[in-house]
Structures are given as C-alpha cells and as structure tokens.
Amino acid sequence: YLLIDWKHFFELLKQLLPIRYQDTAVRLALETDLLLSQYLRGQMLVILIMAVFYSAGLSLTGMHGALGLGVFTALVIVIPYIGIALGLILAVLSVILQFGFGSELVIVLIVFGIGQVLEGFFLTPRLVGERIGLHPVAVLFALLIFAKLFGFFGVLLALPASAVVLVLIRFAWTQYAHSDWYQK
After folding, report:
1. Could you read off the pLDDT of 112-171 as tens digits, one per residue?
2. pLDDT digits (tens, 9 = 90+) for 91-115
3. ∠ CA(156), CA(161), CA(165), 5° rounding?
4. 26, 121, 144, 159 from 147: Cα distances, Å
5. Domain boundaries in the chain?
6. C-alpha–C-alpha distance, residues 14 and 19, integer Å
7. 1 CB burial (10 A radius; 0-12, 13-18, 19+)
C-alpha cells in the first residue's frame, strides 16, 4: 500500500518539516531515490548477466536443469556468502548425482570460480558502483567496511547506504562551498 500511495505519503512527510527546509528535503529525497533506483537497475543487470553466465557454464557439463540452476544462482548471489554457497552446493550435488566425480565436477568448480571473480571484481563494482557514482575501489571498500561494522547485514546494505551517504556528502559540500566562511 505504501508504494501505491507513495506521493501522498511523501507529501505528509514533507509537511512535517519546517517550510524553509521542505525544498531542500525534497531535492535530497529525489536525488536519493534516483541513486537507489540506479542501484536496483545495476543489480538487476548483474543478475541477468550472471544468470546467462551460470546457465551457459553449467550447460557445458550437460547437466539437467542447468538453466534453472544458473538463474537460481544468479538470483541468490545478491545475498553475500550464502547465495554463492547455496548455488555451488546445489550445482555440485547435481553434477555428482548425474555424473559422479568426473570432469563435469571440475567444470562446475571452474565456472563458479570464474563467476565469483567476474561478479565480485568486475560486474558489481562497475555496473552497480558506477551507476550510483562510486568508484569501483570505493565499492570494494564500502563492502569491506560495512561487513566489518555490521556483519552479514552490512554487506547487504553497503551500497544502498553508501548511495545515501554520497547524496548527503554532495549536499554538505555544496553548502560549504557556497558559504560565506568558504568564500572569504
């Protein structure tokens, strides 16, 4: 219901603020909304690319259900550590049950190893981080810092929270740069 009545809800929140701060709050909220939308679009693009990658890679083994398992793995990799572990466990069990401990198992392990490097070091920093205005190195630092401070949930919230912090830092810098204190 909140999404349906978002504009009405937003107007009610805006009215709680003093009139002199309403325009600034609306501008910050819209900028934050834009960055979070970009974050979600980037995340969806990573999921799409990884679904194709895992499905194609697992298909190389000839395993049944490679497409479904590839899509499932791509969807759950957004959950740090647990997602990739779950996808890998299911793929390994599936390939062992279908083919035993042969070359197919090695292919699955290679596909998941390459997938982790591709997603963690290239796709997420570039497709998600750049969309929200964070340098790829800043994305990795944000993930590490939030993981250290808040554990598992910190990793989930690192990039959206960094986007919000980025909006606030830009606002603070603009305010400072236009202040009399800075101008003198």
Report:
1. 999 999 998 889 888 887 787 777 788 788 888 988 999 888 888 888 888 888 889 989
2. 999 999 999 999 999 999 999 999 9
3. 160
4. 31, 16, 5, 11
5. 42-131, 134-178
6. 9
7. exposed
CA nearest 157: which of 61, 149, 22?
149
Tokens coding 116 = 């982790």
Distance CA 41, CA 29 (A): 18
Evaluate whether 112 touches 87 at the Cβ level (below 8 Å). Answer: yes
pLDDT recorded at residue 97: 95
Burial of residue 126, with CB atoms counted within 10 A of its CB: 0-12 exposed, 13-18 middle, 19 or more buried: middle
CB 54 within 8 A of CB 111: yes
Q: Which residues of 147-157 are buried (b: 16+ CB within 10 A; e: fewer)?
A: beeeeeebbbe
* Tokens of residue 6, six digits: 């978002």
**Band of pLDDT at residue 64, cut at 50, 70 and 90:** very high
Q: Which two tokens stand for residue 130?
A: 């750049």
